[in-house]
Amino acid sequence: MLISAFIGVLLFSLLLVLLLLRPKASEKAIEKRLQIITVQKRDKDGEGGDEPVLAPSEKISGGLAYRLGEYVQRFHFSEDLKLLILYSGSKATVGSFLLRSFLTAIAAGAAAQIFVGALPLDVAAVIAGAASQWGLLNWKKNSRILDFNTALPDAIELMARALRAGHSMSSAVEIVAEQSAEPLASEFAIVFQQQKFGIPFRDAILQLGERMPTKDLHFLITAILVQRETGGDLTEILDRTTRVIRERIRIEGEIRTYTAQGRLTGWILGALPVAMLGIINIITPGYSHVLFYDPVGQKLLYAGAGLIVTGGLIIRKVVNIEV
Questions:
Q1: pLDDT of residue 45
Q2: Residue 62 — φ and ψ, nearest 5°?
Q3: Is 116:122 a contact under the CB 8 Å cutoff?
Q4: SS3 state of residue 166
Q5: CA dist 77 to 1, 42, 50, 69, Å?
Q6: pLDDT the model gives residue 283
């Protein structure tokens, strides 16, 4: 009880600190504007010196999250986390995300300690609590990229029609930003705003490719840049690019249909042992007591969890087919 009370007071104190130190609306607006006008820095020779474009800034938020973000910058995983936050479109910073993951892990571990009190489940709850934040961020990234790819063919067609009507490329980008669905509209709006600030179109569209790491968008960027270098009918190139992207989306949809049974099998096989263990303990309390408190039972639980994760990864590898 003393440990539970200490953990509860600790969580309340950390939440109160986060609430008091959260950035204001004006600070967020300044941060967003600084992100929009960020450009790739180059040295005097015009080589290298690139910095991540539109990476979430932590210099304004301040407080505990800022200090934590500054500390983890020396580790390699912080760069990968910055990219993941950027791709997901989240407003979080590295420090605030890590702090939120820590709090979630502590809360999950405290709940497991209060309601169960078994060390294996406490460890599993802490890991699951921390991993839930990473999983949520990765889900946001995949969902955002999927929405972007879905709206991209229509946006390319709209851009081609605008060019046929006599608009410039800058005006075509503005039309796409105004009439397309999110998140494509906001991303193309950033490209248009960067051009208004004087950034060359080539740099602006390459930065778009860095913010949205999708193959379909890279097809479009490559086609536009090649046309600007070698010449040719841009509208015809855009029409062909649209056909290629639509065909690729159609093939991906067919593959997902064919592999749906395999994915469902993986989810069932992974969740069934855990669900059955919970149901059995509800029907017959204490039935699996030996698994959680006996040393041999704990080893069996660890082995079972490892086999479930291994099987899930194998099934995912089989059904995950790249197009």
A1: 44
A2: 70, -175
A3: yes
A4: coil
A5: 36, 25, 19, 12
A6: 86
Instruction: Please compute, for residue 32, the number of CA atoms within 13 A of its CA located in the half-sphere on the CB side.
Output: 14
Residue whose token pair is 């180059």: 42
Helix 119-164 with 215-230: angle, nearest 10 deg: 30
How is residue 53 annotated by DSSP?
T
Nearest Cα to Cα of residue 287 among 277, 296, 297: 277
- Which of 157, 149, 198 is closest to 175 using CA atoms? 157
Show the tokens assigned to 278. Answer: 């919970």
CA distance 15 to 261: 43
| pTM given for the model | 0.68
Does 143-246 carry CATH code 1.20.81.30?
A: yes
Question: pLDDT of 164-219, one tens digit each?
Answer: 988 888 888 889 988 888 888 888 888 888 888 888 888 888 988 888 888 888 88
Torsion-angle region of residue 52: left (phi > 0), alpha (psi -120 to 50) or beta? Answer: beta
Residues 6+ apart with CB under 8 A from 75: none
Quote the longest CA-to-CA distance of the chain: 77
Q: What is the DSSP letter of 66?
A: H
Structure tokens, 238? 């855009």
What does the DSSP 8-state code read for residue 22? Answer: P
Return the percentage of the chain with pLDDT > 90, whole number.
2
CA distances from 245 to 5, 90, 269 (A): 56, 27, 35
